[in-house]
Design brief:
Two copies of one chain form a homodimer. Chain A has 216 residues and is of the alpha+beta class. Chain A has helices spanning 43-55, 119-134, 139-143, 150-161, 167-177, 201-211, and strands spanning 2-6, 13-21, 30-31, 61-68, 81-87, 101-108, 180-187, 194-199. Chain A is built from six helices and eight strands; from the N terminus they run βββαβββααααββα. In chain A, a hairpin with a 6-residue loop joins strand 1 and strand 2. The first copy, chain A, binds a DNA duplex (27 and 27 nucleotides) through residues 9, 149-151, 166-169, 171-173, 188-195.
Chain lengths: 216, 216
DNA sequence: TCAAAAGTGTTTAGTTTACACCCATGC
DNA sequence: GCATGGGTGTAAACTAAACACTTTTGA
């Protein structure tokens, strides 16, 4: 299951990638991309491969959510699904449907078509996972482009957490934490330009060592 | 993978259940109990069934940790393992080896024999999972008997977290939280008797609603 | 000059931490 | 009466929350 974000600031929306199923079951329905693990293939590799085959996306961050094997969830027989989330940066998500997929499209997470199988449930699980992980791992920076403004980071956190954050407190905490560093660039728009930052993974490790959790 | 605790107070130790493998591969080695999912069986049910078959334990709390499918981890071929942890209360853990297991025994988590397959790694993952979950779900109360003293609860938390907690702060926080309620009983020993408490699941739900996480 | 977002500190309330002594029981 | 763990409160440090105005740019 692939997430990305789009839009800037208060208009930022979390999006999920769906594919239109080319064959039965649920032919023509929208579904989460996925497929079967090959012999002698690691689970994470399989997730990445299926994603690439169905959508053209490569080289993305993936993380396991969990496994589900409730009988009856797939009309083809008893299957076990291992759910992964992949996060792709806001600035590049070219899509190219192929393989089992007739089409691939980003959907806003709050405006979804009916989904095949039990994919609504998987999606709910994944969102909850993402919300928990936001404070424990640098997932936010996997969704942002390499350079981002603090407003963008904040807006992203708000979308994932589903609640507003105080701007001044957020900026202070994030900057004090030291794992975002200012770059030379600025984001221009039809308003005052904003300082661009990048994520510093090494400083992040150090911070997590003794802080334990992220400030948001 | 089944955990329990044994001993009281500062002597409290976390224990894990291992089975001695009755057949190849790794015949005679100690391993985590487990087996294969049956057709039309839910993953959680399968974990509970295997546990019951191999050790006689029934009706325990289980929770999924995750799935692992690295090629080469099982000499019999490419398998995917879905790891579950089960927690059994300190006061009753009768064991009876059978099925694939020649013997079943509790081991202190810091004094383990060599393990079959990649089970050392699975165990590490499960401990980390437990540590994270301690603050999010009432796992602690699945490990304690129905009635417990605050010192026992504290000692358990310390074992899982791997660090000491301040007694007075711990007691205040837990009692203020309101999801442990005193019972009539007292735990007697060769010292001052301690008040027994029980866990109040309903109050726990209410507490989590607006607190978000446990005080420890 | 207006709209839109960027940027900036301080005060207050709440939470977390550190800490030491008396109590009840069994032996 | 002594050893063992049970039980209790307060002050200080820190962290989190609330809050409003000025700045810079493009249109």
């Amino acid at each position: 299951m692939v997430f990305t974000v789009e839009g800037t600031l208060d208009a930022m929306r979390l999006k999920v990638l769906l594919v239109e199923r080319a064959g039965p079951p649920y032919q023509g329905s929208w579904a989460l991309p996925g497929g079967f693990v090959h012999e002698h293939e690691d689970l994470g590799q399989a997730a990445a491969r299926e994603l690439h085959e169905e959508t053209g996306l490569a080289d993305v961050y993936i993380e396991q959510v969990g496994a589900i094997g409730t009988p009856g969830r797939d009309p083809r027989g008893h299957t076990v699904t291992v759910v992964y989330v992949a996060l792709v940066p806001a600035d590049r998500h070219p899509l190219q449907a192929s393989g089992d997929a007739a089409a691939a499209r980003w959907f806003e997470i709050d405006r979804l078509p009916p989904l095949a199988f039990d994919h609504v449930r998987l999606l709910d699980d994944a969102r909850a996972h993402l919300r928990r992980r936001l404070g424990e791992t640098p997932v936010a920076f996997e969704l942002l482009p390499g350079a981002f403004t603090l407003s963008e980071l904040q807006s992203l956190c708000e979308v994932i957490l589903g609640r507003p954050l105080d701007r001044r407190n957020f900026r202070r905490q994030v900057q004090d934490a030291g794992f975002v560093v200012p770059t030379k660039g600025r984001r221009e728009g039809r308003h005052r330009p904003a300082q661009l930052f990048r994520f510093a993974p090494k400083a992040f490790e150090r911070y997590m060592q003794d802080a334990g959790e992220l400030p948001f």
